[in-house]
Amino acid sequence: MKDAFKILVATVLVAALYMLPGFESLGARTKWLSGAGIFIALCFTLKSIPLGVHLIVGWALVIETLRQVCHDVPMKEIMLGESYLIFYFHFPSAITCLAMFLMAGGISFWQLKTNDLKWDQSAAACIELAVIACSITLLTGMTWAQAAWGRPWIWSDPRLLTVAIMWFTYMAYLMFRMAIDDPVKRARFSSVLGILFAINVPLVWYAIRLFGEESHPMELTMEGTQKEIMTYTRWYGAGAFFILYMALWRLRASSMRADAKCDQLEDAFMRQKI
Amino acid sequence: MNGWRAFFSLIRWDLAVEFRRRETTLNMCLFAVLLLFIGSYTVSQKTELIDTFGPIYYWIAIIFSGTVGLSRAFLPERENGAMAAIVTAPIDAGVYYLAKMMAVWLYVLVMSFMVLAAYVVLFDFEIYGQYSDRILPITVVTALFCLVYVAPGVLLSAMTVGLKGGEVILRILLFPLMIPVIIVVLSANPRLFTDPELAVTYTSPETAMATLGALAAIYVCACYLLFPKVVEE
Amino acid sequence: MSAAPSPSSAPEENHSGEVPAIEVENLWKKYGFRLALRGVSLRVSKGDCLAVFGANGAGKSTLLKILSSRTLPTSGKAMVFGKDLVKHKLEARTQMGVVFHESALRADLSLNENLKFYSSLYGLGGMSEATRQLIETLGLQDRSNEPVRNFSRGMIQRATLIRSLLHDPQLWLLDEPFTGLDPKGRELIAQVIRSQREQGRTIIFITHDLDLGLELSSSAIALKDGELAAQESESIRELLLEASSTEGGSKRA
After folding, report:
1. Which DSSP category does C40 fall into?
2. What are the pLDDT digits (tens) for A56-109?
3. Which of A224, B68, B194, B197 is deepest in the core (most CB within 10 A)?
4. Per-residue pLDDT tens for C211-222?
């Protein structure tokens, strides 16, 4: 009953925001804040759906994105031709990875506050999935760069650079986790790292923007009516991927919980033996 | 106030221990000069390469040898469990962090002074002649760079000190955190180390100093707040 | 419910109305999924000397870690001289001296320098007369300017005791002080404990040596699986013998 209520509240919230008169004319900051609000509502809503349903919904949405890419969206882009279609997988992965890294930072903070191991598992699972999204972003980005510039890696796109740096950062996080056996210590240290790295993300972003070399971000040239459908598909894909990754996150977190439970039972068994 | 007395005492005795052994600082200096030596060989005669790559080798020498010092930062305390006694003393764990950070910063500054001296010699940087007005900006930027570098480094060192392969993990964890700093100093390199007329559009030393100061403030505050969580059990 | 430990020798006077040295209520400590302490309640009056026994993994070190404020309890209350260990940690620490497994002395510094270092951490001006006397009593005054790395195990143990008593703490906590010492070294430590007890310090020590522990202490408890299992010397003896027979080893350190 409580879950159904949460879903209802989230839906009403989303609908209300979009039906506000003059939503388009609101400033960028307000749009960001409302977007964040919707985002948080979405997260809470998704947590209450049964995992199986969540997974199916996620995959269905991703397949629908694929269908849109195949049929609805213009086949050729002005500069890049057909190869630009990879953008519809590049952009959602990038958004998902950034969002999940920041969420992991928040969860890490919460873990330090409550000292409960389940938040550490949640954060670790989040970062693992986010690293996968990050890897996909980099691979699709490199493919796009190869098509657009003839070289797989370019230094002048600040967003690609930021994602690459975050990949290294969070791979280091995962390596660090592998090096510690004691779950309590691992949880505490990982949370400290999670917070530190989450602080690092905006610092990297602004450092590259303000002090980096001339930036030529890889962007699409969109015109007229095409712009609407491209923007729509782009954000639809972002939402679909995010929902799917959330489902995978829940799956991974429950697998980690099962692992921890196994360790706990093994530990109890061994102690009895002694 | 007991906090200040403890703070200065922690620094003082850290320096006393280091002065007896001198391992950390000497290792760092030797490694740094070695890196510069190899670097200077690779750019040997070609002046245009010196202009571009010289400063980069300068910063690389400082960063890489700094990790040598950082990985040894908490070794004296771990030796006999002194860390447990310090953590249960009536001082704030954050004060311990700040004291340790200042001590390590001092060692790294000594090392970076050596690096500057070696750089002047090996890369033919006329700090006594043509570039004599660069002494102050380079010194301040280097000092701030070392501060931004040491602040999270000490925290990470406390986390990795007992681990198997901890030294390698320290470096893997630290370098991504250093990327914003490196970007800032690399963009300031031309105005610091080479001909100003060539580089008007690059970052001025003042901007670099201000940015590094801000980054240092962020990292020091964040690590000051996070350190108690690292040392508690 | 707080349980006053029953004495193994002459009963203590009832200091009702005075702040107890240690007051622990329903203390739980959880490391991840493992429960190290389950609902331990304890009360130690000022001037008492409490011996803590128990098999390995029973929670003795955990209890001491919480009392020395090295770690926070998961739930429950722990107070030292009326100061809550969670809220008034720093104040409580000024009144505690702790002897850990390791000496906590910096190997490159001499004994005097180590003591100067720790004095400053506790806000003391310099070494007190009592500390100087203790150094003499323990026979370390000749070697007090040598680096600690040259000390023998027995000397290190004595030096650790001096370090822990530097700031004249009201409460003295010792984690297995007799482990790894020869009989002569053990007797020396025991003498120090006796003299400190005479001076009115509240002492809590962990030991595996049943007879020595019961002789030195005014009261004793035994922990088993994180719970307070025994408070009388006979039941403690039974518990330890039972534990040692399951482990298949001797309980003497």
Report:
1. E
2. 988 999 998 888 888 877 777 666 677 778 888 898 999 899 889 988 998 999
3. B68
4. 888 889 889 999
Which of C30, C46, C40 lies closest to C77 in space, CA to CA? Answer: C40
Q: Which residue has the higher pLDDT, A27 or C13?
A: A27
Mean pLDDT of A120-131: 94
**Does C33 contact A260 at a Cβ distance shorter than 8 Å?**
yes
Q: Which long-range contacts (CB under 8 A, 24 or more apart) does C208-212 make?
A: C208/C53, C208/C176, C208/C178, C208/C179, C208/C251, C208/C252, C208/C253, C209/C178, C209/C252, C209/C253, C210/C53, C210/C236, C210/C237, C210/C240, C210/C251, C210/C252, C212/C178, C212/C186
Identify residues of A whose CB sits under 8 angstroms from chain C CBs: 115, 117, 182-184, 187, 260, 263-264, 267-268, 271, 274
For chain B, what is the largest distance between any 2 Cα atoms, rounded to a whole number of angstroms? Answer: 59
Tell me the two tokens of residue B55: 């400063």
Q: Which of C55, C56, C60, C21 is nearest to C40 (CA)?
A: C60
Query: Which residues in C lie closer than 8 A to residue B89 (C-beta atoms)?
Result: 93, 118, 121-122
Largest Cα–Cα distance of chain A, in whole Å? 75
Which of A184, A271, A274 has the CB atom closest to C32's CB atom? A184
Q: Would you state the pLDDT for residue A14? A: 63
Mark yes or no for CB contact C31/A184 under 8 Å: yes
Domain ranges for chain B: 3-232
For range A256-265, the mean pLDDT = 89
Distance from CA of A32 to the nearest CA of B (A): 24
What is the least distance, in Å, from the CA of B160 to any CA of chain A? 9
| DSSP letters spanning C197-209 | HHTT-EEEEE-S-
Judged by CB atoms closer than 8 Å, whether chains meet at B17 and C109 is answered as yes
Q: From the first residue on, what is the mean pLDDT of each consecutive set of 10 residues in chain B (233 residues)?
A: 82 90 89 92 78 88 93 87 88 92 95 92 81 86 95 95 88 93 88 68 82 93 92 83
Average pLDDT, chain C: 83
